[in-house]
Amino acid sequence: MGNMATAKIVVLPMIDKHTDRKPAPVEVKLSATQAPADAPAPLASELPVPEPIPSISLRKVFLNLLAYVNRERIISTALACLSIGTLFLVWYLGTKYKFEFYIRFKNVPTPYEVFQQLTQVGLSNKYLVNIAISVRRILLGFMIATIIGVPLGLAIGKYQRVRDVFMPVIEILRPIPAIAWVPMSIMLWPNNEAAIVFITFIGAFFPILLNSIHGVHSLDGVLLRAARCLGASEVRLFVNVILPGSLPHIFTGLAVGMGVAWVSLIAAEMISGQFGVGYFTWEAYSLVQYADIALGMICIGVLGLGSSALIRGVGRIIMPWGKT
Fold it and tell me: What is the dihedral sign for C-alpha 234, 240, 246, 251?
């Protein structure tokens, strides 16, 4: 309902004959429902003024961006650029002066040679197909590892009987490096594609699983007891207490698992693959194309950096209260 209009009625009291003092008039405010029918309508100046609609200007957008880019972020960005610049400077100086003291830069291509090779090969169909295949493999293996590892880790961390069943097998398989699974995976799976995805899954699975278990163990027992006292069921306990409390450790496991997954994928592609960034890098070494080797390594680093940044971004959206 809108604002109710009010009417003012001035009441003039009668003058007492025994005194000369005149009482002051009294104002009585009546609401719209109590005002008489012949009361005058309120003036336009007395009506409430609606709030203006906020407008968006380029100046406000610029000020918001300026507030986001504070001193701490500028320092962090500058230090990151300095770190990457130092790496390229060492590479440039080592290749220019052919530095040879236990570490040999004799056959290492210069940054300019790698850049030239990038302009020639980087936009070719073959190179882009290799990148797309590696990204598809990493996404498949990592998604399967996440779908299996997170719920299993939460269950192992919560229930003693589930821990007794699965932990002995996990502790036997966990020390086996992913690269050692290459011969066995070739025999287990019908084609190389499935075998490489399986090796990528193995690389990401154990970090995700163990961090999910640790997330449950790190929960404050007071929270669990309070939820049970308030009548929470097992499903509610998992959804509203255990899962949110374990999310920081889960995302730590996802970030670590993504890094291990890339290592496992590149190793598998170098040994048994026919496509992918790892295969491209190993083929360049076999053909003595040194610039392509450096190009493949840089591509792997950029893809790994982008994957980790994506996981951290998702973590900030899901957990605005913490840092990942």
Answer: positive
8 Å CB contact between 12 and 22:
no
Pairing of strands 26-31, 100-101: unpaired
Q: Which two tokens stand for residue 53?
A: 């609609």
Per-residue pLDDT of the chain (324 residues; tens, 9 = 90+): 444 545 455 445 555 555 555 555 545 454 444 555 555 555 555 555 555 555 556 676 666 666 666 677 788 888 988 998 998 898 888 888 888 778 888 888 888 888 888 888 766 788 888 899 999 999 999 999 999 999 999 999 988 999 999 999 999 999 998 888 888 888 888 888 889 999 999 999 999 999 999 998 888 888 888 888 888 788 888 888 888 888 999 999 999 999 999 999 998 888 877 888 888 888 888 888 888 888 889 889 999 989 988 998 888 888 877 654
Going from the C-alpha of 133 to that of each of 84, 147, 204, 266, the distances in angstroms are 28, 21, 18, 12
Instruction: Give the integer Cα–Cα distance in Å for 133 and 196.
Output: 11
> How far apart, in whole angstroms, are the C-alpha atoms of residue 166 and residue 152?
9
Stated pTM of the model: 0.72
Nearest to 153 by CA among 179, 177, 182, 174: 174
SS3 at position 39: coil
Boundaries of every domain in the chain = 60-108, 111-318
Looking at the structure, give the CATH architecture of the domain made up of residues 111-318.
Orthogonal Bundle (1.10)
How is 143-183 classified by DSSP, letter by letter? Answer: HHHHHHHHHHHHHHHH-HHHHHHHHHHHHHHTTS-GGGHHH
Looking at residue 22, the DSSP 8-state letter turns out to be P
Three-point CA angle 141, 213, 188, nearest 5°:
35
All residues at 6 or more sequence positions from 213 whose CB lies less than 8 Å from its CB, including other chains: 153, 154, 156, 157
CA distance 195 to 177: 15
